[in-house]
Amino acid sequence: MDLALLKALNEERLARRACILVTDLTSGAQRLVREAEVEADDLAPDLSKALRSGKSGRRGDDLFLNVHLPPPRIVVIGAAHISQALVPMAELAGFDIEIIDPRTAFATPERFPGLRLQAEWPELVLKDRPLDSYCALVAVTHDPKIDDLPLIEAIKAGCFYIGALGSRKTHAKRLERLAAAGLPDHKTARIEAPIGLDIGASTPAEIAVAILGSVISAFRKRKMHAERRGETEAL
């Protein structure tokens, strides 16, 4: 691979931006297509399909599409029983997952062995490790002082999934707070609450299954860069 092309590829990966390396199998020529450039590319339908699936492969007899997606990341706000059940399921499904909770009685290594666990306020953690469009935000503390700011940051960052624990009544009050913080209704409508697929879940493990189902569905059906840009321009 050309050194300049390798450098460009590494820059995209470090910045957690998706891209595709297109190789002409006949000539050996290669080019890098960034997610932001897909819409204008001659191969746009094939490139979009490859980005959604995350699978590399041949296109016809002459081209190979090598897909590079940032590792999808689940950021859980709250070291709850649901979180304990969600962690191993998410890891088996191929997601990076981390827990943020300033409540040190809950955010302990004993409850989450071997996991990236931050017993800090979310605003401090997210300042150094910000959310992006390849992140899912799962808020489960039931405490507005802890949950609200990450939800706002997730909306601003364009996270592919945003969910929050709580009843419809609880969520209605949450929406009032977010509106008071300046977020329009069409943005806060992205928050899934009650959280997770409607499977009648009642136990922490069942709720975790419902959450992971929603996260996987949102990731596979996520909007591409051009679609997200269109939403931003419509504000």
From TrEMBL:
Q: Where are the transmembrane segments?
A: none
Q: Source organism's superkingdom?
A: Bacteria
Instruction: Tell me the first and last residues of the signal peptide.
Output: none
Gene3D superfamilies linked to this entry: NAD(P)-binding Rossmann-like Domain
One Pfam match, given by its short name, reads XdhC_C
Residue stretches making up the XdhC Rossmann domain? 74-213
Q: What's the protein here called? A: XdhC/CoxF family protein
Q: Which organism is it from?
A: Aureimonas ureilytica
